[in-house]
TrEMBL record:
Location of the L-tryptophan decarboxylase PsiD-like domain: 48-174
Enzyme Commission no: 4.1.1.65
Protein name per Swiss-Prot or TrEMBL: Phosphatidylserine decarboxylase
Organism: Paraburkholderia terricola
InterPro entries (alphabetical): PS_Dcarbxylase, PsiD-like
GO molecular function: phosphatidylserine decarboxylase activity
Pfam families, A to Z: PS_Dcarbxylase, PSDC
Keywords: Decarboxylase, Lyase, Pyruvate, Zymogen
The keyword Lyase is annotated on this UniProt entry: yes
Length: 414
């Protein structure tokens, strides 16, 4: 059955709370965003990097045709996008570069661009658009400008106690704000920007380290819900299936071949961060940093095998480890029986800004901070060499799994 003849989905399972499950809430949001974008377009010049994105699309016949067709396919399938042309989409993207998310008790939308692109990106003509290297390079420039706005003082518009503010009573409860370093007596509770708030830090002692002296106890690198555990992982795979393979070569990309080959036949653990989670990364083991680098990639690409599925974008998380923008940190463990551990922190959408705080040659203690995600959806994985892991604390299936706290016991080595 073609996308044109399907009944549009009214619900879509969303891991992490980045977008609401209810499509009607997203439709209302997209329409309101489009209304505000029209107002901005009538009174303000378009941001230069957004104009560059528009010029790329208009100047590349295949890219323009694929994106136009993806928009048409989404509309023909019954989805209300808030726009019907590339020009209208560009104006909304321009507006988003000055947008900071408000809090909402009923329909919280953390990722406005993901909400806009939700359906074109999983239409038949959309897959090529969102994998196109030139398109992603220009999109990265747009996201960097937005990240700059979110790192500045004008992004604090919702860091207050109003009903749509992040310090209203309901938001405080959902965030567990009392666990974090902040001062309610200071303007904006002491946060200099939206990104400062998003990357807020725990108070000392809020997340104690499990078995600091026992090298066999591996701890959770992020505050994240389990997504997958796999053993016997391969060096590479030739195609993507619905049960998505993990290909070490693609995930580590810039690492030397011999380093990636160390993990063939090993184990991988993947988990996802929710909109309300702590977004900093910590070392799962003690050791010396062997590699620390960023990989440019896609921002809104999902796997065709998931299609227009209620859980499709969630179930593309294995795929994103090999194609999305990410940070790779490889730790040479102090315990030689563990060998090396690859930590991969993946930006799944929006700004996808992966900030690395460590460097090759640096020694880190178990539980020490490695870096953080700035604004955006996030997933991460830990990759272990063969025959290292005796067992993980958690095992599939992971339906409705609660987050494993950062620095908590995650796995035990042999």
């Amino acid at each position: 059955m073609t996308s044109e003849s399907k009944k549009p989905l009214e619900q879509r399972r969303r891991l992490g709370g980045w977008l609401p499950d209810n499509e009607a809430e997203l439709v209302a949001f997209r329409k309101e965003l489009a209304r505000r974008a029209r107002q901005r377009a009538a009174s303000a010049p378009r941001t230069h990097v957004v104009d560059e994105l528009r010029a790329l699309i208009e100047g590349d016949t295949v890219l323009r045709m694929n994106l136009s067709r993806a928009i048409d396919q989404a509309q023909s399938a019954g989805y209300e996008l808030g726009y019907s042309t590339i020009g209208e989409l560009i104006d909304i993207i321009d507006y988003v570069t000055t947008y900071a998310p408000p809090f909402s008790e009923s329909s919280l939308i953390h990722c406005p661009l993901n909400a806009l692109l939700d359906w074109p990106m999983c239409m038949p003509s959309g897959y090529a658009v969102f994998r196109d290297p030139a398109f992603n390079a220009r999109l990265k420039r747009v996201l960097n400008v937005w990240c700059g706005f979110l790192s500045g003082p004008h992004s604090r518009m919702h860091l207050n106690g109003s009903p749509d503010g992040w310090f209203c009573e309901e938001a405080q409860q959902r965030l567990g704000i009392s666990q974090f370093l902040c001062d309610p007596h200071e303007p904006h509770w002491g946060f200099a920007s939206w990104n400062s708030f998003f990357t807020r830090q725990f108070k000392p002692g809020a997340r104690p380290l499990a078995e600091a002296a026992d090298s066999k106890i591996i701890v959770s690198a992020c505050e994240a819900s389990p997504y997958e555990v796999r053993h016997g992982i391969r060096f590479e795979d030739s195609f993507w299936l619905k049960s998505q393979p993990y290909s070490v070569r693609e995930i580590l990309e810039r690492s030397p071949r011999e380093l990636a080959e160390r993990f063939v036949g090993g184990s991988i653990y993947q988990a996802f961060l929710s909109a309300f989670n702590y977004h900093r990364w910590h070392a799962p083991v003690a050791g010396t940093i062997r590699e620390a680098y960023q990989v440019d990639g896609t921002y809104y690409s999902d796997a065709e095998s998931e299609g227009e599925d209620p859980g499709g974008l969630n179930d593309s998380q294995g795929y994103t480890t090999a194609v999305a923008a990410r940070a790779v940190i490889v730790i040479d463990c102090d315990d030689p029986a563990i060998g090396q551990v690859a930590c991969v922190f993946v930006g799944m959408a929006e700004v996808s800004s992966c900030m690395i705080d460590v460097f090759p040659g640096q020694h880190v203690s178990k539980g020490e901070e490695l870096g953080f995600f700035q604004y955006g959806g996030s997933t991460y994985c830990l990759i272990f060499e063969p025959d290292v892991i005796r067992g993980f604390v958690v095992q599939p299936p992971f339906d409705n799994a609660q987050p494993i706290r950062v620095n908590a016991h995650l796995a035990t080595a042999r």
